[in-house]
Design a protein that fits this description.
518 residues, transmembrane helix, transmembrane transporter activity, 22 helices, 64% helix, membrane, mainly alpha, transport, globular, Permease for cytosine/purines, uracil, thiamine, allantoin-domain-containing protein
């Protein structure tokens, strides 16, 4: 029996439970109410497609699929009080083998285990601040992260960072499905190709991200438990070899230190571009300090531990023939399989579990991708969010299969670029909030979120971000380009992008405001 929470009758054609559910969207604005003749039994579906449509309708009406898109969440629908969900969400997103994969890049830059761990510790603690802070805006504004960005980047110019954010999150998703596919291939001893593993990971992700906010938080609440157990067992089985570190050829260079620091920061900073997507349904009175602490610890703590583990594994691979051979065959998945080999069949089962731990990260990322698709262009706003989950799966499979042929080259080249634009974008957004809005969410005109005439032009934000690259480009240290500053200091691109864009935004915004009047 369902009890009404507001005393109002339920909407026609919608169950009482859905009418009071925070994921429910106003039927008049997005779907046509369904008139049902209760005197006649519904005709049973016929054929495979009929069964799929019938079940899909039942799932949507039951409230398991989020119908709310990028429209701001009204205050009356921000009813979630379980703040701990934010901690379990970030914790589950981080408790998987992806941070291990990134940590394994430390030895690639000529760093020993101590240096790698110190860099991981410092730059993770530093770069976790923006995503944790931006999480606190969600309950106050009820807006997705890139919708909030319209208040500095404007209604139309914001499409540029949205497009870049789509590329970033989709690229991360490709890396994740490849890593999961490698694990599934390794546990099958080559009888299952990496390509098939990628398909399996993509389809499982589709199911979770299709359903939306409620299903996502429900899944993340428990997904970390088998992940932690599997990782602990893997360390217990293979930990005796971790002290066999292959010493680097010489002392760490400034270029190696800062380039690996950029890799670590580029793993963390992009989360800030979607942080509020996961907190918009919390009640507005939720203490900001609690959201920040839960987000900071849930995201930072497991990342530090697992990246350091990855650095230890990467340094030991050349000294352990079994690990080296497995790495040559299926990279990260092969090494984990070799570490768990002493556990026999149970070890192979745990490798499968480890591959599925990536779904916690992939599902949350995919959820935000579906929202970003709607923000990309006005015409896409009318397309239901959950349909973009299907489009995303169709993208991940072919791109993942193609990129898996040169995985670490693809990983290093991709990650090394995303930190630059993310830092420039966040420099503008955070300065606008702290300087122009005085850090007060009450200064946002919530009714103007989709009205270009009430929002800034966005020219100041774009100019500040683009101009910052005048200093970023000379400070980049990439395989295909090494700037004159980077030749001496190493890669300082993402640091300059953040601070320079923020500093330039202040005078440019003052001019824009004087000319435009808004």
């Amino acid at each position: 029996m369902v009890t009404q929470t507001d005393g109002n009758p339920p909407e026609k054609g919608v169950s009482p439970r859905v009418a009071n559910h925070p994921d429910h969207l106003d039927a008049e604005a997005n779907i046509q109410p369904i008139e049902a003749d209760e005197s006649k039994p519904a005709a049973p579906p016929s054929g495979l497609w009929g069964h799929l449509c019938h079940y899909g309708y039942k799932v949507i009406v039951a409230g398991r699929v989020e119908l709310q898109g990028i429209t701001p969440i009204p205050v009356k629908e921000r009813t979630v009080t379980k703040t701990l969900n934010i901690f379990t969400l970030w914790w589950s997103m981080s408790c998987n083998i992806l941070p291990i994969t990134f940590g394994m890049l430390g030895p690639v830059y000529g760093l020993n285990l101590r240096d790698s761990c110190l860099i991981i510790l410092f730059f993770t603690l530093l770069s976790t601040i923006p995503p944790a802070y931006l999480c606190t805006w969600g309950p106050k504004l009820g807006m997705r992260q890139m919708i909030q960005a319209r208040y500095s980047w404007g209604r139309y110019i914001v499409s540029l960072p949205v497009l870049l954010n789509l590329a970033t999150t989709t690229g991360f998703s490709v890396i994740i499905v490849i890593t999961g596919g490698q694990c599934l291939s390794a546990v099958a001893n080559g009888h299952l190709s990496i390509s098939v593993g990628i398909v399996i990971m993509s389809i499982l992700t589709l199911i979770i991200s299709f359903c939306g906010y409620t299903t996502l938080h429900m899944y993340e609440r428990f997904a970390w438990i088998p992940a932690v157990i599997a990782i602990i067992v893997a360390v217990g089985c293979g930990g005796k070899y971790l002290h066999l570190q292959n010493p680097p050829s010489g002392p760490p260079s400034p270029q190696g230190i800062l380039s690996f620091a950029m890799i670590v920061s580029s793993y963390m900073i992009p989360w800030a571009c979607l942080s509020s997507d996961f907190t918009t349904y919390l009640v507005p009175s939720t203490p900001s300090w609690k959201i920040f602490v839960y987000s900071y610890t849930g995201l930072g703590l497991p990342t530090i531990l697992l990246m350091c583990l990855g650095a230890a594994i990467g340094g030991a691979i050349p000294s352990v023939p079994e690990w080296s051979e497995a790495y040559d065959q299926t990279l990260v998945g092969g090494v984990l399989q070799a570490m768990l080999a002493p556990a026999g069949g149970f070890g192979r089962f745990l490798v499968v579990i480890l591959s599925f731990t990536l779904l916690g990260n992939l599902a949350a990322t995919s959820y935000s991708i579906t929202l970003n698709f709607q923000m990309l262009a006005p015409v896409l706003f009318k397309v239901p969010r959950y349909l973009f989950a299907i489009i995303l799966a169709a993208i991940l499979i072919p791109v993942g299969i193609k990129a898996s042929a040169n995985f670490y080259d693809s990983l290093e080249n991709f990650v090394s670029l995303i930190g630059y634009w993310c830092s420039a974008f966040l420099g503008v957004v955070m300065v606008d909030h702290l300087w122009e809005k005085k850090g007060d969410c009450g200064r946002y005109d919530l009714d103007a979120w989709n009205d270009a005439s009430k929002l800034p032009w966005g020219i100041a934000a774009l100019t500040a971000a683009v101009a910052s690259f005048g200093l970023v480009i000379p400070s980049m240290d990439q395989v295909w380009w090494q700037g004159p500053i980077a030749k001496t200091t190493g890669d300082l691109g993402f640091e300059f992008a953040f601070f320079v864009s923020g500093l330039l935004y202040v005078p440019l915004r003052m001019v824009e405001k004087k000319v435009s009047g808004r």
